[in-house]
Specification:
- The mean pLDDT is about 95.
- It contains 8 helices and no strands.
- By secondary structure, it is mainly α.
- The chain has one domain.
- The protein is elongated.
- Helix 3 crosses helix 5, helix 4 packs antiparallel against helix 5 and helix 7 runs antiparallel to helix 8.
- Keywords: Membrane, Transmembrane, Transmembrane helix.
- It comes from Keguizhuia sedimenti.
- InterPro entries: DUF6644.
- This is DUF6644 domain-containing protein.
- Pfam families: DUF6644.
Length: about 160
Amino acid sequence: MQGTAGYFGWLEASALSRAMRESLWMYPIVEIVHIIGFVLLVGSVAMFDFRILGLSKGLSVQRMGRHLLRWSVASLLLIVPAGLLMFSAHPQDFIGNRIFLIKMLLIVSAAINAAMFHLGTYRRVEQWDTQVPAPFSAKLHAGLSLLIWVSVISCGRLLAYT
């Protein structure tokens, strides 16, 4: 891992990285923005997943999806820049941290799971949009989504202790 970490030496020496490390308030403020973004993302994803798992069967899955997707996409405007700023403060530490790497793999897994859901089971959503239980494959994707996002959050918290 040490060889890979050296690739980020230029970033760690940058003015942005120094500002993130040296400012009393910059890193905590950026971290709060990151957390708010994750609340929006995971909250909207969880609401959709719980609907697929059978809660609030009277609500249209399609309408919920259209409404919550906006919040999920908007959350990325907070999460991604804030995450990159936090990474810039200690890139070599993060890239060499197994928990950080697991967190990144989990995020990629969440994206793959969502893509598979939308390209597969969700294409027939009109058959189970309201009052009909979602098919097993949809429930499997929803359950996996919840598990992955709880794991991402857990890894994020564990980063403070590793």
